[in-house]
Amino acid sequence: MLAVVDFLFLSPLLLSLFLILISLGTVQYGASLMYQILSAAMVFLGFLALKLGIGARRWTWVASSALGFLALVYFYLVLQRNGWHAFTSTGSWYARLELAGLYFSGFAHFFYASQALKHRPLIEFFLKVWVALTFLLAVYFMALCFTSPRHSAEGLSGPFPVLYVLQPLAGNWIQPNNLVDLFIPGFFYSFSFFLYRLMRPASGEAKRIRLSRLFLYFCVSAVLAAALLFTKSRAGIAAVGGGFGVYVLGVLYYHRRERRLARRLSVAALLIFLFLTSIGVREVIQEMGTIAQAVKQEADFQGPRFQVIAASLQLVKKFGLAGVGLGNFQSAWLFSHEPPAYDFPANSYNDFLWVWAELGIAGFLLFAGSLLGGIFRLLLLGFKSESYFLAHMRFASAGTLLAFALHALVDTTFFILPLYVLMMTVLGAGEALGAIDREADPTSKKTQGFRWPGRLGLIFIFIVAFFTAWLGAKRFLAYSISKSNHKDALLMAQNLDVFNPLYAAHHLRNLEQEYLRNPDSVRLANLLLTADEAIRRDPFQVLYYVRRAEIFMLVGREEGVRESFELMRDRLPGFYLAELAAAGFYMSQAVKTKDAEQGRRFEAKGIRHFRKAQELHPQMRAHNLYGLASQEAMERFFKLQDSP
Q1: Which pLDDT score is estimated for 92?
Q2: What are the start-end ranges of the H helices in 200-259?
């Protein structure tokens, strides 16, 4: 059993892991701010542990490894702020803050895991808790699938009965492509525990205990494998297959002198296969056969995923040397005048191209090099380890990271906060496994004392941690205040979190309701001034232009409606989104108005703007209006689309 102080030392990691798993692969806004505050506390606790001699001594290496990437992010923020960048158009500062918070949260989890898990009892306990929590989530998820008519993640939506009490921390919907990543580490670690018990010699009472644990971990691994298949995420399952292949090869090479392992692995694989087919997932395995066809279709640019990836590659070719700047992916897409792709993408489906497009070749090499270097380092050190446990867990960490990397080639993975934090925790656990090996080896070299590079890194990271904690707490306070939806509360929230576009949108709606109750010129002027200020602050929020048009429609000034969409056209030149927003707006007005003649006129305008959007984007269809038009308006567009 762990001592109380050890459990308390692990509690931040356990809390974070719990938040990640109940998020179901998504994250609420309030929970993302809690991650940032928790991450700042992790940095302080991690360095305190180092000072007291609790954690590993190689803190200078950890600090300097993160310093380069943090400095690079800061460098691009400064360049964008001062307009010195090759790509001069600035994107949303809200997006920049979210990305900066994501990077810092990932670093904090890597650093804290590498310090908190440096002793074998601690990391073994943590990994067992990780497996247990993932197993419970898998059982709950599969129970939902069996009770759902469609028997898959795609048929599920929240709020979920057990998790409802945990709102707003828990996820309220399921995205199979995100959910599959939550099961990957638990599956690899549980299978590693199974192999570790399988290879350990035992006799007598110890042998009976070993057999019971073997059976337990085998069942857990089988259920987690079933949960992976039940997500029906073809890209995710294929990525797991690639990572598991490397994992198995690593284990076989490590035990190359023990022939019995190959036989035992074959038997284990056969039993898992029989278990999976017995619970009715053969149709999932058959569906995996459609991967080749799906990839071919996407590669021929018939699907949105590869359209976005291809357009991301165009951004890399044009701005790949210096990048377009942190948080500028969406604005670069607009102003680079590339052929418009699917919808209005805020990111690429390929995370590596996204990093390259925003942070240039230096950021890409640092990001991809750190990830791939970590995978190869875990594999090589695993081969050298004399401990079965350390070797197997290193191979599990390497397989998990490789599966994440493969998934990130065709799905947004690392830029989703819970998944990125999960990946960095796996990387930190791998570093902690190395620390255990170094402690056991008296010939290993340890970094002693404080050196100037380490001091500078420590000072810089403390400053970033303090700023992150202050900003996260400030934004969380704004989020909490805004829940009342009162006019003064929303205004206060907007002043606390000035870059969050939702507060301004809700504030506009309240001012609009005030004007409707008591219309006068002062309230109208205040309403329009607030709308213009919101657009000036964040010109890429389509909602602001639509709100401005709605205000003019309320007072019967159609020239103001035209002006709103012309303003959008000026801010977003040569792009279809302004025409699409205008189409949705006019068709929604046509459905809402009781004047038949005016309804026909609005409908004609809506159709005209939709045709203009199709000229700019020939693949535009009625479903692209989702979020820009009312349900009734979309149904009318669908009828027009289906008519000859």
Answers
A1: 66
A2: 205-230, 234-254
CA distance 121 to 118: 9
User: 288-324, pLDDT tens digit by residue?
Assistant: 444 445 545 544 544 566 777 777 888 888 888 878 8
Neighbours of 567 (CB within 10 A): 18
Q: What is the mean pLDDT of residues 55-81?
A: 54
Q: Say whether 422 sits in a helix, a strand or coil.
A: helix
User: b vs e for 276-307, b when ≥16 Cβ sit within 10 Å of the residue's Cβ?
Assistant: beeeebeebeebeeeeeeebeebeeeeeebbb
Q: What residue has token string 């609005």?
A: 602
Beta partners for residue 157, in sequence order: 173
Q: Say which amino acid occupies 137.
A: L
User: pLDDT digit string (tens) for 587-605?
Assistant: 888 888 888 888 888 888 8
Report which of 107, 212, 181 is spatially closest to residue 468, judged by C-alpha positions: 107
Q: Which long-range contacts (CB under 8 A, 24 or more apart) does 214-220 make?
A: 217/190, 217/191, 217/193, 218/194, 218/268, 218/271, 218/272, 220/131, 220/135, 220/190
Residue 125 token pair: 């306990």
Q: Which amino acid is at 290?
A: T
pLDDT digits (tens, 9 = 90+) for 485-512: 777 788 788 888 877 777 877 777 778 7
